[in-house]
Amino acid sequence: MIKSKSAFKTFTSSLPKNIFSGFVVSLIALPLGLGLALASEAPPIAGVISAVIGGTVVAILGGSHVTITGPGNGLVVILLSAITLLGGGNLYEGYIITLAAIVFSGALMMLLGFLRLGILSDFFPASAIQGMLAAIGISIFAKQFHVMLGQPETTGSVVQLLLKIPSAVSVLLSSQGNTSLLAAALVGVISLVIMFGYPKIRNQLFQLVPAPMWIVILVIGMSYYYEFFSSQPYPISEHLLINIPSNISKSFAFPDFSKVLSLQFWGVVFGITLIASIESLLSIKAVDKLDAQKRRTNVNKDLKALGLATIISGFVGGLNVVTVIARSSVNVNNSASNRSSNFFHAAFLLLFILLFSEQLKRIPLPALAAILVYTGLRLATPDSIRKISKIGNEQLLIFFITLLFTLVTNLITGISIGVLTTLITHMVINRSFTLFFQNFRKPNVLMFTEEKGNYYVSVKNFCSFLNFHRLKHNLDAIPESADVILDFTMCDFVDHTVLDNLNNYQQSFLRRGGHFEIIGLDSHDTDSVHPFAIRKIIPSKTITRIEKYLTKRQGLIKSIAQDFSWSYEAAKQNDVLFLYQFLFFETRKINHLYNELKNEQQDCRVFDIEYSEGAFIAKEVLHSTFLFININAVIPAFTLDREGLLEKVYQWAGFDDIDFQDHPDFSNRFYLYGENEEAIRAFFTDELILFFESNPYYHIESNGTALLIKGKERLFGIQEIKKLIDFGNRFAQLLKKHPFLLKIK
Length: 745
Prior knowledge:
Layout: H1 2-13, H2 15-39, H3 44-61, E1 68-70, H4 76-87, H5 91-114, H6 126-148, H7 158-163, H8 165-173, H9 179-197, H10 211-228, H11 263-290, H12 299-315, E2 322-324, H13 325-333, H14 340-355, H15 357-360, H16 365-379, H17 382-391, H18 393-408, H19 411-430, H20 435-439, E3 445-449, E4 455-459, E5 461-463, H21 468-476, E6 483-487, E7 491-494, H22 496-511, E8 515-519, E9 535-536, H23 552-564, E10 567-569, E11 589-599, E12 604-613, E13 620-630, E14 638-642, H24 645-652, H25 664-669, E15 670-673, H26 677-683, H27 686-693, E16 699-702, E17 706-710, H28 718-736
Parallel strand pairs: 4-6, 5-7, 6-8
Antiparallel strand pairs: 1-2, 3-4, 7-9, 10-11, 11-12, 12-13, 13-17, 14-15, 14-16, 16-17
Helix pairs in contact: 2-3, 2-10, 2-13, 2-14, 2-16, 3-12, 3-14, 4-5, 4-11, 5-11, 5-12, 6-16, 6-18, 6-19, 9-10, 9-16, 11-13, 17-18, 18-19
């Protein structure tokens, strides 16, 4: 009861901010809703209907917190294609048949939610999605550029429309007598300049009104100027103005289900569902990262709400309802804290349509087209190509192939070709066609809790967009306040999509007070310095220059070396004979050591080792982090380890544990073994025993002149390396003044 009162108080106290945020978002959503509907060849009111219904239904039933819903950029191309295709040239007939497809696509989205298939977004490669979004941007630009210049009658495919741009500019320059065309084009160009120039204006009062709404205000103001103050007639033709019905209640269109049995119809349904789902899921992911409270959306619940909203929208003449990133970002930036801002955005849109429909009719199409041209350019910005090229040339290949096929075919074919290209590229990079198919069905993620509630997650075989959902399922079960070590030592291949997604987890854990560290990629090959570049192990390359492109872990190890004034060498080394002098490596083969930190003054070294146990089919390759201390003196040979079941078995086999009657806690917790018991007892002074009792457990071996110290049977994270170095420094200082030690002459 107290909790519900507190929640209600929090909700009411945040209402003013959410109302204001909803109002600001509605100022952007109004022109965008009108423009996106027009770009789809649907009535302008259709875009506003989807925003109003989406904002209301998803605010009440959704699983997100600060997202905004309405018509999406990604659906413009496929809705335009559907209306043109299903109507056979009759745009209105195509529109009402497409409404039926929208209803069915909403039902499919609801089904995805009920089947908990929100994970589907993880099966699309990041670069292929970027290519698809860029293609959507180019398609929007190609169509709307002509509308922006006052020539909406220009038709053709995306490529044809792009090729017609020079002739559209030429027509404009040669039409000095056509005042209407010149005025419309001038409005479009000035609107585009406003969209580009708006972010550079730093005045806070000016930026309270978004750029699209400034355009709406200015063009409506221009219309009233010509009506009341100018002697000249309004220069823009009526066919270049928005057509909004005066009576909204009589403007609803209803779906036509006459083609529900045709394959063409169901192709449109599946296409709309695919793009709507991808756009929504990607937007939800992005908005979760922006949320100040770092809450995670219940994706499947949101899919169900989006699906229901889409069904209702389709039945009354609206477009699909999707989660939109741009409007959601504005919502977050205006301090929205819960779903009520989405509801208020819908409420303000409804008020605008009911109270200002006559004013909205004065908006020229070129002004709205300019907003969409800007949107298209943002989706297909050259900066995104530069970013992808830094990740790797193979990502650029995937991006351009997806983009090209999306432009010349359709969105479904384009993204399918992108997925296939990614898979083939991965096979070529790994020089193996069997890695993915042999291991696809195998469980490849192992997770367990270590001491102090820390989580250790190990990934085997490969981790790519094909099976990332398995890793994601485990990571989602971990509290974000916990410490997590994610180990890819046993993984031959990790792709860009996985590393990009894992970066989101790292940021999320960091904000919640947890620690998320990736290890095991230091010995993998890569062709790029980018942290999200593909990492792979090629068996034919035993020793490679891994120091060429350091991983994040290696960069942090290098920083540790600088902090402790130690030297650091990342390269793999074959000089490992000194390790075979220790009992631990008598039955193990050392492949190489790497990531070596060295303290010349105290003769200490910390390094990672790749070694193997067993042989033939029982052979297992392991990676661990070790500390080596050269004593430069004669000490007894011994092994010190944590007392456990295996150590008790050793005792039964005749390897007696050396106990100290004066230190029962040490004797119970540690297993100490060595042949020269008398020398060992003399070496283990009260001070040394107290040191081991008050520090973390490590496996410690002495070969008579040096010590080898290791922790877990895995690579150490950065925090663990720091603790190991600190342990080694204090241990070395203690040994320097140890009374037992005799300098070697």
